[in-house]
Amino acid sequence: MERTAWRLSEPPNGRSLELGVFSGHSSCLDYDRVEAEETDDSVLIRAYVRYNGGDCTDDFVTERVKVALDQPLGDRRLDGCTGPAVEWDAFDGGSGECREPFEF
After folding, report:
1. How does residue 102 score in pLDDT terms, banded at 50, 70 and 90?
2. Could you give the CA distance from residue 48 to residue 87 in angstroms, rounded to a whole number?
3. Domain segments of the chain: what residues?
4. Which string of b and e fits 64-101 if b means at least 16 CB within 10 Å?
5. Are strands 77-79 and 42-51 parallel, antiparallel or unpaired?
6. Distances (CA, A) of 94 to 5, 10, 49, 83
7. Confidence bin at 36 (pLDDT 50/70/90)
8. How do strand 29-38 and strand 62-68 relate by DSSP bridges?
9. pTM listed for this prediction
10. Three-class HEC string of 62-95
11. Which residue in 10, 22, 26, 76 has its CB near the most CB atoms, within 10 A?
């Protein structure tokens, strides 16, 4: 499993986050899962894909995922959408601000 980029597809809504997870190039990647780690100060979302080997095509595929949190996001920091641990960052790093919704 390898980490992949994600972006909010909708503004945060209480205890629910709507994500677009980069899960393609359809020829070499398959969506696997999303994990959420919550503390009093932050929420870390990790998204994973499986690399199937071979050459990747140029298509851009996203998996729509709903993440349920134990507590409302509120003012907590939202992390994990990009960064050095993200192997597949098709969003080209973006602004680094995970709360900023992305138009898919």
Report:
1. confident
2. 9
3. 2-79
4. ebebebeeebeebebbbbbeeebebbebeeeeeebeee
5. parallel
6. 10, 16, 19, 10
7. very high
8. unpaired
9. 0.88
10. EEEEEEECCCCCCCCEEECCCCCCCCECCCCCCC
11. 22
75: amino acid identity, one letter: D
Question: Could you tell me the end-to-end alpha-carbon distance of the chain, in angstroms, rounded to an integer?
Answer: 24
Cα–Cα distance for residue pair 25/98, rounded to 1 Å: 22
Query: Beta strand pairing status for 29-38 and 77-79?
Result: unpaired
For residue 18, give the amino acid letter: E
